[in-house]
## 1
Amino acid sequence: MQRLRINHLTVYQFAGPVTFQPHRLLLRPREGHNIRIESLKLDITPARHQTKWYRDVWDNALAVVSFQEGGPRLSIGSEVILQHYDVTPLDFIVEDYAVRYPFQYPPEEQIDLAPFQQLVYPQQQAVLYRWLEQLSLTQGSMETYVLLDRLNRTIASQFQYVVREEPGVQPPAQTLNSRSGSCRDYATLFIEACRTLGLASRFVSGYSHTPGNEAGNATTHAWAEVYLPGPGWKGFDPTAGELTGSRHIPVAVARHPETVPPVAGSFIGPKGPAPILTVSVRVTAI
């Protein structure tokens, strides 16, 4: 077991005073058998505000912040201290009927998994299928894990990672054409490829603990999960080409990759230049 401290600071600097509308925060990691939160502290400016916690449709912990005053600056900081227990990524057994692809999910699970098999970009399915054909992932039977591992490693090794400041994700076809993208673009491509093959998959946003993140000025991370009969949702990180493990800290899961930003909200103010956004993430071992 290791203890980690996660500091996440988001700052918007406006040209003048504005009125802040309610903001939605997805900053609390998802607790489970391998993650236990010791404490979470929010530091928000303007100081006059109210915070209420909810669970969204995917069981993510969601904070909604309502402001009683405006100003020229919005600062949202969080500090989480958690216990992360060791995870052996390959220590799982898939049900016999799903060891080899293709397979069918049981009828009692299909209705719940159906949303995670629907493509976000259905018009690009043909492009995705041709790419999967080139990787020899659509022909005949093969081990399910081998298929997913090959797809995961291919994205990590054959695409160029870039840091994109623009909001949202790239459509998979754009990532394929440019052979580059951010972690959220890689995750989206992986997810849509899995759904093209009929495998239920979902988007995960969170943090990763690496030596570079110890120094600060890091960013949030994104990866994918695939539902495998037996072990359930298993994480694949196409940025690193590996199964997720003890260095991955999930915060939110979703069917659509653009629905779980860490901070989301709006403001009312005069026309002018866009606010200046700065984000800093630091994940350190205690």
## 2
Amino acid sequence: MKKIAYLDCPSGIAGDMCLGALVDVGVPLEYLQEQLKQLSIEREYHLWAEIVKQHGQKGTKVHVDLTFDESHHHRHLEDIEYIIQHASLPPKVTQWSLKIFHQLAVAEGEVHGIPPEKVHFHEVGATDAIVDIVGTCIGLDWLGVDEVYCSAMPTGGGTVKAAHGRLSVPVPAVLKLWQSRQVPIYSNGIEAELVTPTGAAIATALSVQFGPPPAMNLLKVGLGAGTKVFSIPNLLRLWILGSTSHHSTHKEKITVLETQIDDLNPQAIGYLYDVLFDAGALDVFTQAISMKKSRPGFLLTVICPPEKITLCEAIIFRETTTLGIRRLTQERSFLARDIHFVNTEYGRIRVKVAQKDQEILNIQPEYEDCAAIARKYNLPWRIVHQMALQAWDQSFSNNTV
């Protein structure tokens, strides 16, 4: 039976709320404690849980109490990766944890204008963040979760005190993480920090899709309590969904926008592609066509989520000479996919892995990562691409995704 974890975030998401929801849904706290000892940082914290009530609803609050002064104990990404890689954790836990921290480092690096490996972690590199992230991955693995989905996220508001001073909510790292996955967001009217960088990193790194839950059977629900009291229950709801179906392709609604153009400078097309992709288009392509009066032209096709129709159409009207755009709403099937990281002698490369029914069907190194290494070391791109595939075979061919 395929099992899916759905993160329902009406009041936001944080790392400790993820742990609370996992314990509430049945993951033994003792198991989390024992597995986390593999990180060899157990002297830095004390992990415990309690049952609390939020507006009459019972949930589990997990505490990560630090047992030392962490004000001068910050870690870089390589320090955290070393801790995780040298722990005897299940392979999927290691893979997920590294992915979350790397995504968090990328976001922080973009905020501060430095490479991910140069990020000097503060809150996100603290002991409680390591426990939250690795503990969440341990819990999901214990439940036998195959995939993670997540709801839209509330934006919150106001300000919050951080290592770099007082920041507006949502904090910059959270905004970058949302942007990286085009996470749907909304305001629930609560002026507080509802989504933390740790919570956003967990959701954006692990979730295959954002929005409503997939059509499956609801098996269990776990409620993870936050610390603050709001006008609604401050609870992360973890839905465990199951299906006896052997089909692991996913379906979603998409919109196809089309228009023919015969009087546009071709140099504008490259710029149009970039702007549309930045706006959230899923794909953009052109085809050479013959138009009326035998004039050569091209057919522009843009595939986008339905909620991006207005924005994409506005861009097409602004950047091209077209006077009309056709639209068609369709359903598409797509394979579950995940991003892994492989190390080569020239650096780390992301690899996109697509699978169905636990069977890997497609493995593709990320073009931009291969191109960056090829330029830096003056290597043929195809050689770097092949090196990434070989590194994947050596590192992951015997592991289950």
## 3
Amino acid sequence: MTSQDQPAVSPPASTSLANRYGGQKRRLSRKAKRAIGITAVAAGIGIMAWISTSPGSSGVTSKDIGFSVTDATRTEVDFQVTREPGTAVRCAVKALDSKFAVVGWKVVEIPAGEKDGTADNGRTVSQRVALHTESLPVSGLVDSCWVPGGK
């Protein structure tokens, strides 16, 4: 005995889609959209204020200009430091060998400068530092610069 398959009665399309994928989504009200927008703007302003006033931004930058190796025991490093006029700065300068090992190191004091008639009012100063080295260096550079006392 065989019976013929009866055609299934299918529910209307909108009902079957709602059962499968869920009902229609509710829209956000105008008040909710406005609250989300105001919160996002306030958070953005707060983050920008925090970044601009954080103590990690000391305003001191350095730029390596070059170096010259005199012999295996001496090298000279040329660099520039940009800082606020009237601010003393310290910089750590190092010399490296071919395996990137530090073969010379020195902390240099850069005294506070006065505003002068230069284009940047004395913010940028050039320095040449002589380093004593343990072996023949292949490079010389500024490791970091900072304001003493963490101003």
